[in-house]
Design brief:
This protein has 13 helices and 12 strands. By secondary structure, it is an alpha/beta fold. β8, α9 and β9 form a beta-alpha-beta unit. The model has no long low-confidence stretch (mean pLDDT about 85).
Length: about 300
Amino acid sequence: MNDLRQLRHFVALAEHGHFARAAEAVHLSQPALSRSIQALEASLGCVLVDRHSRGISLTAHGRLVLEHARRLLAGSQALSNAVGQLGNLASGELRLGAGPYPAARLVPRALGVFAERHPGVRLQLLIDNWQQLHQRLLDDQIEIFVADSRELEGDARLRIEPLASHPGVLFCNPDHPLLRRQPLRVEDLLDYPLAGTQLPAQVAAELRRMSGREQPLSIECDNFMVLKELVAHSSVLSMAPWDVVAADVAAGRLAVLQLPGERLTAHSAYGIVSRAGHSLSPGAERFRQLLLDPRLDAAMTPSG
């Protein structure tokens, strides 16, 4: 197996695109970094980078090696984490992901409990949509994530454990003109922009049916905190599972629009996603148990 240090040097070079910047990042002199890359190329029997006046570019071999190098380095880190966490979880690192809605409430609560109980474990949280999290998991960049899992069902590479479901609601700012319009019709909503995160196919189809528009979202953003601020200070409408807006509605920062006889958004479908057939590190397993504890969800969700 090639020296992991050489692989780290190569990944740094690929990410920085320049020998001087990469050498600084890995705390080497530029000649030492160049020798490390040359040794890696010699051991693999191929050229990994093309050198030119502006820096470097990866060859076809280089792109292939970069993909595998990242996975090997992630696997090495995962092994180190698992060993370090054995026993009392006094050290190590936990890399996890969350979709926009779980990241707004459920995951921070679980992280808070975890951090209080295991302060020696370093936590890294990546917030993104389910597609990106799916790929990061398969690339071993994260060990576990929580997101809408509807689009991931049927992937034999994954282990998916469903979490509590919450009804979807349409929300607006508390002074929105639509709150004074009764009875409210679906057609009334079309006069205002609709914002949301990247939609699962089931929800997107429902919105297309009800709105009659091929592209029902006027604004797409995977940061839910941005969406809440946008709605709170404009006439833009948005939708979310009830659990992530309940506290804002109770405090009067947001309001829910009611459509008689209509349901604009589906229930949430949060799931804990990990690699099928892969053992979780002690830290990831402890975090998984926290998420599955019904007391966590019950304690944080106002009734609605």
